[in-house]
Amino acid sequence: MLKFAVFVSGWGTDLQSIIDAKNEGKINGEIALVLSNRQKAYGLQRAKDAGIETAVVKKDDALIVKMLKERNIDFIVLAGYLAILTDELIDAYPNKIMNIHPSLIPSFCGPGMYGMHVHEAVLQRGAKVSGATVHFVSNIVDGGPIIKQVACDISDLDTAEDIQKRVLEIEHKLLPEVVGLYCDNKIKIIDGKAKVI
C-alpha cells in the first residue's frame, strides 16, 4: 500500500474529499502526513480529526524532503497548496507530485494563477467553459503532464464565486479519483504524457 502526503494551505475541502474517499474504500493508500505552510490552515484540523499526522513548514523544502523520506512517503498530493515548490522537492519526487488546478490547463494557469485569481480571469475573459485539471508537478509552473481533466459549463454564471463553487464540485470528485488510480498503479508516463491504463 502506497503512503502519501497531502499539502494544504487553507480550508482543506479537497483534502476532506480524499479523506472521505479513503474512508469509503475508494483509495487503496495511506494518508501518512498532512503538511501546511500556514499555521492556521483549517485543513490541519481536518487531518487531526481524521487521526492523521500534521506538520507546518514554511519555505524549507530541504526539511520537507527530509520529513517525507523519514516517513517513507511514496508520492505527494497538492490540495490547495499555495506555494511554488523548489527544484529540490520536485527533483526528489519526479512525476510523484500531483496538483489540482481550478481550470482546464493550458488555459488560465502559470505564475499568479491560483485560487480565486483563476476564476476572476475566467470570468473577465468571458469563457463559457471551465473545469479542473489534475497534473504532475514539474519545474515549470502548471507545466507537468496532465493526468485527467473534467470540464463544466459556466455560461449561466455571473460571479467568480459561483464559478469557484461549480469547479470545486468537480475537484472533490476528480482529485480522489486520480489519487485512487495512482495508488492502484494505473497512471503511467509514456513519451512525456500521463496515461491512465
TrEMBL record:
Formyl transferase N-terminal domain residues are 3-179
Q: What Gene Ontology molecular function terms does this protein carry?
A: phosphoribosylglycinamide formyltransferase activity
Query: Which chain regions cross the lipid bilayer?
Result: none
- Per the UniProt record, the site (Raises pKa of active site His) maps to 142
Q: Give the source's domain of life in one word.
A: Bacteria
E.C. numbers: 2.1.2.2
Q: Which UniProt keywords apply?
A: Purine biosynthesis, Transferase
**Keyword Transferase applies:** yes
Q: Which Pfam families does the entry link to?
A: Formyl_trans_N (PF00551)
The pathway where this protein functions is: Purine metabolism; IMP biosynthesis via de novo pathway; N(2)-formyl-N(1)-(5-phospho-D-ribosyl)glycinamide from N(1)-(5-phospho-D-ribosyl)glycinamide (10-formyl THF route): step 1/1
- Return one Gene Ontology term, BP aspect: 'de novo' IMP biosynthetic process
- Cite the binding residues for (6R)-10-formyltetrahydrofolate: 59, 99
Q: Which reaction does it catalyse?
A: N(1)-(5-phospho-beta-D-ribosyl)glycinamide + (6R)-10-formyltetrahydrofolate = N(2)-formyl-N(1)-(5-phospho-beta-D-ribosyl)glycinamide + (6S)-5,6,7,8-tetrahydrofolate + H(+)
GO CC terms in record: cytoplasm
Q: Which residues form the active site?
A: 101 (proton donor)
Family, per the entry? Answer: Belongs to the GART family.
What is its biological role? Catalyzes the transfer of a formyl group from 10-formyltetrahydrofolate to 5-phospho-ribosyl-glycinamide (GAR), producing 5-phospho-ribosyl-N-formylglycinamide (FGAR) and tetrahydrofolate.
Which PANTHER family does the record associate with it?
A: PHOSPHORIBOSYLGLYCINAMIDE FORMYLTRANSFERASE
Tell me what this protein is called. Answer: Phosphoribosylglycinamide formyltransferase
